[in-house]
């Protein structure tokens, strides 16, 4: 398996890929405090991404608070400006499930949208949905799915603890 593809395997260690290794249409996952930001590489060191209008390039954890907005702007910026001090990697994680569109079409679609303002919802219309729609024609966000699964598991765990606690309390009262 070639090195480039090894980087895009889900769960691979985040890296700092060389710009020369990036190909137009690649999805770039940027590891920010508390979440991942996503962009699509369009060539010559630039990415296009969906970001709240108040976000500045490399915003990091300040950007986490801006996700509370309901509007976002499609921006074209230098990858290194968007990344800032954060780690990033190529992550074309759905290539095995969904064939990617041709790179020229991905870039053309992304470029045609720069400057547009869209609705923004963390759970259904976020930066990951935006870039997967561009690459695959299917809007997906695994971090939203994973967060919802985590909340569900935590809820079940708390409910189980509550039931066990109630049973122990009941037994203690019966034994008195």
How are the elements arranged and paired?
Layout: H1 3-7, E1 27-32, E2 35-43, E3 46-51, H2 61-66, E4 71-78, H3 79-83, E5 87-90, H4 103-113, E6 117-119, H5 127-136, H6 142-175
Antiparallel strand pairs: 1-2, 1-5, 2-3, 3-4, 4-6
Report on the structure:
By secondary structure, the protein is α+β, with helices and mostly antiparallel strands. The chain has helices at residues 3-7, 61-66, 79-83, 103-113, 127-136, 142-175, and strands at 27-32, 35-43, 46-51, 71-78, 87-90, 117-119. A six-stranded antiparallel sheet has the order 5-1-2-3-4-6. Residues 1-14 and 144-157 have low confidence and may be disordered.
Give a brief description.
This protein is of the alpha+beta class. 40% of the residues lie in helices and 20% in strands.
Keywords:
176 residues; alpha+beta; 6 helices; 6 strands; 40% helix
Supply Rg. Answer: 20 Å
What does the overall shape look like?
Answer: elongated
Percent helix range:
40-55%
What low-confidence regions span 5 or more consecutive residues with pLDDT below 50? 1-14, 144-157
Number of helices: 6
Helix/strand structural class: alpha+beta
Mean pLDDT: 76
Biggest sheet details: 6 strands, antiparallel
- Reading the helices and strands in chain order gives HEEEHEHEHEHH
